[in-house]
TrEMBL record:
Belongs to the OMP decarboxylase family. Type 1 subfamily. Substrate binds at residues 15, 37, 64-73, 118, 179, 188, 208-209. It comes from the Bacteria. Pathway: Pyrimidine metabolism; UMP biosynthesis via de novo pathway; UMP from orotate: step 2/2. GO terms for molecular function: orotidine-5'-phosphate decarboxylase activity. The active site is at residue 66. It holds the Pfam family OMPdecase. It catalyses: orotidine 5'-phosphate + H(+) = UMP + CO2. Its EC number is 4.1.1.23. Keywords: Decarboxylase, Lyase, Pyrimidine biosynthesis. The keyword Ion transport does not apply. This is Orotidine 5'-phosphate decarboxylase. It comes from Methylobacterium komagatae. HAMAP family: OMPdecase_type1_B.
Length: 229
């Protein structure tokens, strides 16, 4: 499928407790989506084996594992993930971690660096010990990621335009915290609608609860894709 197909731009977050629930959700969504995110909760409950099966069925998988460790551990871990056939893998945007991930990524796997979690605001960053406000911290990490050769960035849609200016047109920008108009923001503090995200130059949007918690997840997925198109 072409990367310009709007369905490729929607990544559905499979934030569910186990494989049976994930498989049922993918079946309910059907051809309305082609790209799925597996994070900690599902990955540690059989989600990696599920990812291999989904990839074998022609779906794309984003492993949102947010790796961060010593360089050798990251490099070897990323090399193992690369063998699964996933499309995206996240690491935290610390320079040493990013350099090691680039070394281990192999062919096909794209490394996304998480700048600052979308649940953080300036007060959260200060509480965590960062001297910079969120916007400045995002900019600093984005510039470092581009210099190191990371494939893309995960950031809030609110920072997307600034990040794009720092990393140029060829790197991916992937945005969580996307909420259709009228949807509950949940624990996300920096959110944007799917249409506004595309207008801001976002390559892929990650949507979880508005789809997975809907009575008709297929219809919601289709509506989001239509809004982005």
């Amino acid at each position: 499928m072409s990367q310009t197909d709007p369905r490729d731009r929607l990544i559905v977050a499979l934030d569910v407790p186990g494989v049976p629930e994930a498989e049922a959700l993918v079946e309910r969504i059907g051809d309305a989506a082609t790209f799925y995110k597996i994070g900690y909760r599902l990955a540690y409950a059989g989600g990696l084996a599920l990812a291999e099966r989904m990839i074998g069925q022609g779906l794309k998988v984003f492993l949102d594992l947010k790796l961060h460790d010593i360089g050798n551990t990251i490099e070897e871990g990323v090399r193992s993930v690369s063998a699964l056939g996933a499309t995206f893998l996240t690491v935290h945007a610390y320079p040493q971690t990013m350099r090691a991930a680039v070394k281990g990524r192999g062919n096909g796997l794209k490394i996304l660096a998480v700048t600052v979690l979308t649940s953080y605001d300036d007060a959260d960053a200060q509480e965590a010990g960062y001297a910079l406000p969120v916007a400045e911290l995002v900019a600093k990490r984005a510039a470092q990621a581009a210099e190191i050769g990371i494939d893309g960035l995960v950031c809030s849609a609110a920072e997307a335009a600034g990040v794009r200016g720092l990393v140029g047109p060829d790197r991916l920008i992937v945005t969580p915290g996307i909420r259709p108009a009228g949807a509950d923001a949940g624990d996300q503090k920096r959110v944007m609608t799917p249409g506004d995200a595309r207008r801001a130059g976002i390559d892929h949007v990650v949507v979880g609860r508005p789809i997975t918690g809907a009575a008709d997840p297929r219809a919601v997925a289709r509506a989001i894709v239509a809004e982005m198109a």
